Known about the structure:
mainly beta, Methylamine Dehydrogenase, Chain H, four-stranded antiparallel beta sheet, disordered C terminus, repeat
Amino acid sequence: xxxxxxxxxxxxxxxxxxxxxxxxxxxxxxxxxxxxxxxxxxxxxxxxxxxxxxxxxxxxxxxxxxxxxxxxxxxxxxxxxxxxxxxxxxxxxxxxxxxxxxxxxxxxxxxxxxxxxxxxxxxxxxxxxxxxxxxxxxxxxxxxxxxxxxxxxxxxxxxxxxxxxxxxxxxxxxxxxxxxxxxxxxxxxxxxxxxxxxxxxxxxxxxxxxxxxxxxxxxxxxxxxxxxxxxxxxxxxxxxxxxxxxxxxxxxxxxxxxxxxxxxxxxxxxxxxxxxxxxxxxxxxxxxxxxxxxxxxxxxxxxxxxxxxxxxxxxxxxxxxxxxxxxxxxxxxxxxxxxxxxxxxxxxxxxxxxxxxxxxxxxxxxxxxxxxxxxxxxxxxxxxxxxxxxxxxxxxxxxxxxxxxxxxxxxxxxxxxxxxxxxxxxxxxxxxxxxxxxxxxxxxxxxxxxxxxxxxxxxxxxxxxxxxxxxxxxxxxxxxxxxxxxxxxxxxxxxxxxxxxxxxxxxxxxxxxxxx
Length: 516
């Protein structure tokens, strides 16, 4: 459809409705004989796109309106219909390890390290949210008992009544049917070891999984053994193909997995600081047709440490140490950007066309913020005649953070490992992003909100697919709702009327002076 533009100097002359693109005509200057420059132009296009010049402003406006408006406690007690089992004594305070929305944003699944899988209804959480109240509870629809700590949970895109999860120390993939009343898994997939059935020795444990949308019965998972396992639920409950990276990085696990939208490329982030790429295309030699002998080696292996050392300004300011890749995620609006999060707390974007880092955010590592009472308990070995500098080792209880992209704006939400806040990182393409390596800060550029203060330390975050409301899982086991708090327009108008009737207007009144 062609684009129609109506030019007018007076808004009253414009046609009603938003069916046409509207662009105000610039007024004519009689002195210079040319049209005056108008700083603010409004253009409503028929295809509904936002002008590129307005996107940075809208992103800043959106981020400044975000705040935490609810903190909900998850009930950690066993329901009466739970099977009798011995309590896990090694878990002192359960924290949320993973969280995920379904495609429509109706249901929310969350798992914790105590072996619980909760299913929530988002509207119930939103309507019952009471900020600052200790009695607020995250009422769940279903609660499934899992024997071990839940590492990742995903909704089945072909059947959204079904949710799958993987756990620590197990080579099983559990499927649960939300529509059924039973608490037992509806299906269990197994990893077939090289020597047949059984455990995989000391390298047991799956960390992440992903579903194929085109091949509805297929899914992949990665884990501690450094392999990518593939299943086809139509043929067998055992994995039929395996892709490894042992030749490049022996005895290293894979923490995160991601599929491209066309499901032709597979990305994995490893414990050794690598991002691996596999090409799943291959005709007769494809991993879905024959065994994966020809697909053991990835197409590319990118070491993030080497990419960061190429940045001269970053190398001059701080020491770049090896760090594991805890999470990777493709930008839903631009698959050219692959965001990564490191265990040291750094986040960035890898350009998949050039395989270079284009954006970077480098906060202090989680173990740098040590309380003053902990400094006295750290032993410092000194040598006579040599000045000793205390060195603080990384904490062993640092959680694996799981960030998320917003669906509407190119913003990457990351939970801070050193403080109770969420970093809202604007990873817009080009030099306009303040985290871009080509960004040049001008004097006229204004500061805007990039950190959201929260009541608890955030571990995992999920974004609502329709309105970009964030649901964050905390180290204390709570669920935080972060977004634009909605209020009634009628109540706002009534409060303004009452305020104007009670406050007299005069010279000494701030309201009277403002009205004048």
